[in-house]
């Protein structure tokens, strides 16, 4: 996994530098996210690396689905990836690009996984607390429900993980008892 991140990093940085210079950060986000979803589809993933499918055909397929999201520059970027056998890295490139964009825009994306629905007041308090924790950066909160947590929630923001779930507490208790 770390190898993919290492290989994807220069591509993400190059895309970001170009998009930033062109004032097209959002457009490139859309292109990379859509292209990443396309290559992650099992039907398309089988085509990547298939000797009977050319790089140009793969780029045509992706750009045909994505449309004009990246313009000629986006098509050229996808061509470079395809010719280098790197289209499979698009999901990682999209993640790294999003992190670079968030850093420049002073935004932090936070994933909240909760056992049950989170009330609007709780979301507001959590968002405010996380904004203080991250030095006043704007917090974009993404909430998902996971009933298997039994209670509580897990907060993920970059390297920060706070596991306040009942499931996590039970697992830690079980580990302590068996150690």
How is this structure best summarized?
The chain is of the alpha+beta class and 179 residues long. It is built from 8 helices and 4 strands; from the N terminus they run ααααααβαβββα. Strands 2-1-3-4 form a 4-stranded mixed sheet, with helices on both faces.
Largest sheet: 4 strands, mixed
Kindly provide the name of the CATH class of the largest domain: Mainly Alpha
Strand order of the largest sheet: 2-1-3-4
The CATH architecture assignment of the largest domain turns out to be Orthogonal Bundle
Number of helices: 8
Q: Assign the CATH superfamily of the largest domain.
A: N-terminal domain of the delta subunit of the F1F0-ATP synthase
Fraction of residues in helices?
Answer: 55-70%
Q: Would you mind describing this structure in some detail?
A:
The protein is built from eight helices and four strands. The protein is of the alpha+beta class. It has two domains: 101 residues, Peroxidase, domain 1, CATH 1.10.520; 72 residues, Glutaredoxin. Strands 2-1-3-4 form a four-stranded mixed β-sheet, with helices on both faces. The chain is globular and about 55 Å long. It starts with a helix and ends with a helix. 21% of the residues are buried.
Ordered list of secondary-structure elements with their pairings:
Blueprint: H1 2-22, H2 25-40, H3 42-45, H4 55-66, H5 71-83, H6 90-104, E1 107-114, H7 120-133, E2 138-145, E3 153-157, E4 160-163, H8 166-178
Parallel strand pairs: 1-2
Antiparallel strand pairs: 1-3, 3-4
């Amino acid at each position: 996994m770390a190898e993919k991140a290492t290989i994807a990093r220069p591509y993400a940085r190059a895309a970001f530098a170009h998009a930033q210079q062109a004032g097209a950060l959002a457009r490139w986000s859309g292109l990379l996210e859509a292209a990443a979803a396309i290559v992650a589809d099992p039907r398309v993933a089988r085509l990547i690396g298939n000797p009977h499918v050319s790089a140009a055909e793969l780029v045509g397929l992706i750009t045909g689905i994505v449309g004009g999201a990246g313009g000629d520059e986006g098509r050229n970027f996808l061509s470079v990836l395809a010719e280098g056998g790197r289209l499979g890295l698009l999901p990682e490139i999209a993640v790294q690009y999003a992190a670079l964009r968030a850093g420049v825009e002073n935004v932090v994306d936070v994933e909240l996984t909760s056992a049950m629905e989170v009330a609007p007041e709780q979301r507001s308090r959590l968002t405010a607390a996380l904004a203080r924790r991250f030095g006043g950066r704007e917090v974009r909160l993404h909430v998902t429900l996971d009933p298997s947590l039994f209670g509580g929630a897990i907060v993920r923001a970059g390297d920060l993980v706070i596991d306040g779930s009942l499931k996590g507490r039970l697992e830690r208790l079980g580990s302590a008892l068996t150690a």
